[in-house]
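thread: overnight batch results

M.L. [08:02]
morning all. the overnight job finished for the chain we discussed friday. pasting input first so we're all looking at the same thing
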Amino acid sequence: MYTVLVCDDEKDIVSALKIYLTADGYEVLTAYNGEQALEIIETQTVHLVLMDIMMPVTDGITALTRIREKHNMPVIFTTAKSEDNDIILGLNLGADDYITKPFNPVELLARVRSQLRRYTLLGANPAADEVIRIGTVEINDAAKSVAVDGEQVSLTPTEYEILRLLAANSGKVFSPSEIYRRVWNDEPYGADSTVAVHIRHLREKIEINPAKPRYIKVVWGQGYKVEK
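M.L. [08:03]
and the structure it wrote out:
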């Protein structure tokens, strides 16, 4: 059974989400600000976090920053704001997905399942000993790990899945919509900006000079590819 941490300062929302998630078979932990969420993550097993951005004591953005210092479980923001700046800021700091309030419970549960599937599997039935190499980057799909020049780098589940998709199909160009469908398993609404943020994070982690990438290339007007 997977454990989902729900963090929101609105108790009615927390209660509703707990009902939906429990009915779907998840164990649910609850918090009402970012500080409480951080304490729970440090003391209990959490597989996914649903977190509001605007909260008292410690907001979602600050909490996410501290989570990513140690943990790579999926984090989905639930936010009342739909402005691009809030969404992009969350993705920049390592959020895996977002959903705006008021949200459709069916859609939210689908996003939870999708993120947990990537977190636990991170690939579609790959061979257990599969290792993908692109230059000095090594992707060990059995261990779900990535190393650059022999040094391990920490990727979020979404970043890992994007990198594996591109690296396993080196030379092939994927549009942002194609990447979004394959990685998020959802319709590609807002795909361009969402994918671009994750690509930028990947470059920062695996490229010597992210401004002049060796591996993850943009094909203007078409999408992204990993060089053979």
